[in-house]
Design brief:
With about 425 residues, the protein is α/β, with parallel strands linked by helices. The chain is built from 17 helices and 15 strands. Strand 9 and strand 10 form a beta hairpin. The chain starts with 9 loop residues before the first helix and ends in a 5-residue tail after the last strand.
Length: about 425
């Protein structure tokens, strides 16, 4: 019997006929209030989720631990402290880049910064915060969503909230810089600011060069503006007044242009200009992700972040979140032959098995993005702390079940793929 052909998407065609170019995007009125890109690229057949962790029968590492301890080891003997891009973290976990939308800024953004600091987890401050909200020292509130979030949304506000809770010796902040951030000289502002001096002096400040993100590989940042805000910013940004209908204006950033030589020289320039900061490079899930990672490491990057196609986003065309870019599992496979010494990965991370499989396949740590924001939205005082307690328990149970007692002891033998790859 021949398979039934999939139904033609008549409703979608009709919607596009009604709304025009706006149909290529999520609902503009939800911008900054809804977290888009929840991993539809992977869907129910996510390759990483289909893999299984496979403990051995014979556990030589458990025997070594038994001899070391003088007793049978338990799951709570698993040591989760991990070096991440020049920082020390309490877990093999960092908080992924969060950008300039209301969903990531204001009270949730500050609560997330405080809790991440309290936990000693490294945190990435995403692109476009300064151009949209201001740096926070001399500039006033510039939030296009209104003045009510004001200084709380600035880069300096997030930095202070994080560092005010940070325990000695743990954590660190990585500050991204997009093409627009470069025009605002964000890294120069942070590097020379007395407020960042404690992080710099303790080796807990990094700058992350962003070449792209998983939700929209090949595109730059996109934001949605109302007409009044668009008029105010018309001389500063590229605006499309027709793409989102009559009420909203699409603002797009240049994604930047990279070749192997440009990336190599950019990393070297960062090391020369900011010698006391760690250097991270974030890659989108492109087909040449392994080559790009090799170039970044050879140029001197302390960490390479790979954002899988299932990674979340504040805003992107639907076609990109659904069908563009390599899933994280494919990225890990391409990186397996020559993995970066410190590979950080993100993409629908929220529970222990997905995290442990990523660690076994070459990652040093996994990034929490959407999960961290949702946890904080649930409880702005302890939501992320409780969420991380659960994740840490799962990590210890799973790693111990594999007969190992540290994340860096995991390897590809600990993972089974149903297709035998």
């Amino acid at each position: 019997m021949s398979p039934v052909a999939p139904a033609f998407p008549e409703d979608e065609v009709r919607r596009r006929a009604r709304t025009g170019a706006a149909a290529a995007f999520p609902a503009a009125e939800d911008y900054g209030r809804v977290l888009f890109g929840a991993g539809t690229a992977a869907g129910p057949e996510d390759e990483l989720d289909r893999m299984r962790l496979v403990p051995p029968v014979f556990m030589d590492e458990r025997l070594k631990k038994l001899i070391e301890l003088g007793r049978e080891p338990m799951y709570d003997d698993v040591e989760l402290t991990t070096g991440i891009g020049g920082f020390t973290a309490a877990l093999p976990v960092y908080v992924s880049a969060l950008g300039s939308t209301r969903a990531a800024g204001g009270d949730p953004g500050l609560a997330l910064s405080r809790q991440a600091g309290r936990l000693g987890l490294p945190m990435v401050i995403g692109e476009n915060v300064v151009p949209v909200h201001g740096y926070g020292r001399l500039a006033g509130p510039q939030d296009p969503d209104g003045p009510d979030h004001g200084a709380a949304t600035t880069l300096l506000g997030r930095l202070r909230a994080y560092s005010g809770e940070l325990p000695d010796g743990l954590g660190g902040v990585a500050v991204q810089q997009s093409t627009e951030d470069a025009d605002a000289e964000v890294w120069n502002l942070v590097y020379s600011d007395p407020a960042a001096r404690p992080l710099l002096d303790s080796g807990r400040l990094a700058f992350e060069l962003k070449t792209g993100q998983g939700a929209k590989p090949g595109l730059g940042g996109m934001t949605v503006l109302d007409a009044a805000t668009a008029t105010r910013l018309a001389d500063r940004y590229g605006l499309d007044t027709a793409a989102l209908g009559e009420r909203y204006v699409l603002r797009s950033s240049s994604p930047g242009t990279f070749t192997a030589e440009i990336l190599r020289q950019q990393v070297r320039l960062m090391r020369n200009n900011f010698p006391r900061a760690r250097i991270w490079v974030k890659l989108h899930p492109g087909r040449d992700v392994a080559e790009a990672a090799r170039v970044a490491v050879a140029a001197g990057a302390d960490a390479v972040t790979v954002d899988g196609a299932e990674g979340g986003t504040g805003w992107a065309p639907v076609a990109f979140t659904d069908r563009v870019g390599l899933p994280l599992a494919a990225c890990l496979r391409r990186l397996a032959a020559d993995p970066p010494p410190c590979l950080l990965v993100s993409g629908r991370m929220w529970e222990g098995t997905r995290a442990v499989k990523s660690l076994a396949l070459g990652a040093r740590a996994i990034g929490l993005g959407r999960a961290a924001l949702l946890a904080v939205a649930e409880d702005q005082d302890r939501g992320l702390i409780r969420f991380t307690e659960c994740l840490a328990m799962e990590l210890r149970l799973l790693i111990s079940a594999l007969g190992k007692y540290a994340p860096d002891a995991l390897d590809a033998q600990d993972v089974w793929h149903p297709d035998g790859d």
